[in-house]
Design brief:
Layout (H helix, E strand, L loop, with lengths): L1 H101 L6 H17 L5 H14 L5 H11 L4 H16 L5 H9 L4 H18 L7 H29 L4 H13 L5 H12 L3 H17 L8 H12 L4
Helix pairs in contact: 1-2, 1-7, 2-3, 2-4, 4-7, 6-9, 7-8, 8-9, 9-10, 11-12
Length: about 325
């Protein structure tokens, strides 16, 4: 009996030993296989992540495309609504007079574009009870307003009635220069505008085109461009104000407004102004009697006091010019 038990125990021990050895063998094999499995899993995870990132980028591209398309549609719709408001504000009779005044049988492409926009817009305002016709005209108007520079064509037509194509092209270039030329100081900007032919009317066209574009921009786009547009609008308005003031002042002394404006810009452009230089410049430019010269110096002093800060490099610049004027005995 004890022999049987002993044999049984040996058999059990042998089985346990074999199971233990088999288990260790499986563990060793598993350990040998595991690194390969980890590499495959890592590669698979990278592929999944890459695929996910690619899908995300594609989705972002689609979203951005949709966003800018929506912005463009919003801007186009706002522009169209603003134009229709302008046409409606003229009234039917007023618009007919406006169109007759500006209608040209020998119009160039810019004038024709502006006339087509006005006519199509007017017809659209008259189709309140015809949805199908409204949709057709709205599409036609949107297509016309897709053409680059139509604002300059429209407001150029309203201001000048008839104008050669090269003048419209020049106006469009001026519009872009006014917006893009950031390196110009206010005085350099004024000096450049001063050389424009028929500058007041050109400035009016630019002001109306810029104001129209500003109002048609959706809120998300009113960032850096908004700042630039407002700055340029302010500069143009400041120039008009200074130009008109010079004309009024010059008329009091029998002078030409352009000559006085040129002298004011030249004085302001100097980094340092001395009495002798100033007196010589005024004498050469105006040739006034002593009394008139003193009165002009007094008026110029007042003008330099109220000119906007942007016309000067800093407060010291303004004060130095005023000091040079104050050195005259009045």
């Amino acid at each position: 009996m004890s022999t049987i038990n002993s044999h049984h125990s040996l058999l059990i021990n042998d089985i346990d030993h074999r199971q233990s050895a088999e288990s260790e063998k499986k563990t060793t094999i598993a350990q040998q296989i595991s690194p390969g499995s980890s590499v495959m899993e890592a590669i698979f995870e990278q592929q999944v992540q890459l695929s996910s990132q690619t899908e995300t980028i594609e989705m972002m591209g689609l979203k951005i495309g949709e966003y800018y398309k929506q912005l463009k549609n919003t801007r186009s719709e706002r522009s169209k609504n603003l134009l229709l408001q302008f046409i409606e504000s003229q009234g039917k009779d007023g618009f007919n007079d406006l169109l007759k005044k500006n209608l040209s049988h020998h119009a160039n492409s810019d004038l024709l574009l502006a006339q087509q926009i006005l006519q199509t817009g007017f017809l659209l305002t008259q189709q309140g009870h015809n949805p199908l016709r409204r949709r057709q005209l709205s599409k036609q108007l949107a297509d016309l307003m897709e053409q680059e520079g139509w604002e300059i064509s429209l407001f150029g037509l309203l201001e000048f009635n008839d104008m050669p194509t090269e003048n419209f092209s020049r106006l469009r270039r001026l519009f872009q220069q006014v917006i893009d030329d950031e390196e110009y100081s206010v005085i350099n900007f004024f000096e450049k505008i001063k050389e424009w032919a028929d500058r007041k009317r050109r400035i009016r066209v630019l002001l109306r085109a810029m104001a129209f574009e500003l109002n048609s921009q959706p809120a998300p786009e009113k960032g850096r461009r908004l700042k630039i547009m407002i700055d340029r609008l302010k500069r143009l308005l400041l120039f008009l104000s200074l130009d008109e003031r010079c004309e009024v002042m010059a008329s009091c002394y029998g002078l030409e407004g352009d000559v006085l404006l040129s002298q004011i810009l030249e004085i302001t452009a100097q980094s340092w102004v001395f009495k002798d230089w100033l007196e010589e410049r005024l004498d050469d430019a105006f040739n006034l009697e002593n009394l008139q010269k003193r009165e002009l110096i007094f008026d110029l002093t007042k003008l330099f006091k109220i000119m906007p800060d942007g016309c000067f490099t800093d407060d010291d610049h303004r004060e130095q010019i005023l000091e040079a004027f104050s050195s005259f005995e009045c």
